[in-house]
Amino acid sequence: MAPNCRASFLTRRMAAGESGNSPYTKRTEPFMDTLEKLKSRQQERTALLNRAIALAHSDPYVCAAWLFGSGHRDNADAFSDIDLWMVVDDAHIEAIVTERHAYITQIGQPLLALDVPGNAPVGGGYLMLQYPGAYGPLQVDWYWQPRAKAAIPDDARLLFDHCGLNRNVGSQSTDFSYLTQRLMPPAANPDRTTALTVLYELTFCWCMALIGAKKVARREAESAGWLLQLAAEKLHKAQALLPALKLPALTPAPIEPTTITLPEAMALLRQIQQGATELASHLDALGEPLSAQLVPSINAFMDLAEAACALDNASGLVRRRDDT
Question: CA 112, CA 132: separation in Å to the nearest integer?
């Protein structure tokens, strides 16, 4: 049986001193508020997905596009990210990849943008985006691939194909990436300032912590443990870049992902978030301010993930391996 987060969630609410006027005590069904938030989030996700698909359709240089991951499996839940793959005319791939940070703002201004070069299709580009939502960031993973290297993999839910691509039977979308093909991706900007490097490590930390919280919502403790471990490593790297601040250690003690419980994982994710927030507060002085929405949005996501974990019946809004 998967560990349950109910005690952790209720204990934290009581410790916060919430009165009888709390929406969690006013309602006949204590967790109905969580279900409503999950439904709202799922609607926001669908709207964001539709905007992304419409953008791909309207771009004259995108000759094919597909969804993969949960978009292909048709089992997306309120926490699922969106994996969108676009095949771009060879004559325009370089320009789109170069301007990809501006490209993705056509469907909304993101809170965070994480570039992981190894995830990009060979000769193309990649970005992980966290767009604002009412109950926390909504993740879209964007992939751009040159037409000359493209083929339709088995895990594609094809949106359109205007260029007559061949099928690559037995392949997966990520098989086309630098990382999977064991190729060296283009080098990152060697002139990046210390502040930008700190921001990159913190962005990586936040993105992994958000995915870790999603795993808590789905009651996947070990997966959450590995992700929070990676988030902690990134926070440690960010702090090490600013030794003059002389802050106390912001990262939690080492953990063992294979034995961690869901309440422990959630508590450590919150500790990492608090540490990242503390370090990020110094970025304004370094000339790299963050959106004022960012920290409240991440906190709202973690609150919803913990509340969703506590639900005995998530009504299909949270995908779980074991609901018993």
Answer: 9
